[in-house]
Write a structure and sequence with these properties.
93 residues; mainly alpha; 0% strand
């Protein structure tokens, strides 16, 4: 028997916060919302952690229990990564 998976299975964490994250990323892209931490001299490899921490803070449990979780980080990058690097490049100049 073959099982075809047509949609990626996202964690409950991301499913519950998707709309908030989507809205926040859209606001960053449009310029309605500014990055909480200026890019300065940060390279993308470092700044992506700060950017995702900001997203999780904005859409999480008000900072309660919001520690770094590599699985959550990778999941957010998988969903919004292309847009986040675009936001980074727009604000770098």
């Amino acid at each position: 028997m073959k099982i075809i998976i047509t949609e990626r299975q996202y964690s409950l964490y991301l499913k519950r916060r998707y709309h908030c994250m989507r809205e926040y990323v859209d606001q960053l892209k449009s310029g309605d919302e500014k990055l909480r931490i200026p890019i300065g001299e940060f390279k993308w490899d470092t700044y992506k952690y700060l950017l995702i921490a900001g997203i999780r803070s904005k859409c999480g449990n008000n900072g309660v229990g919001e520690f770094f979780d590599e699985d959550v980080h990778n999941e957010i990058m998988g969903m919004f990564g292309d847009e986040l690097i675009e936001i980074y490049k727009m604000n770098k100049n």
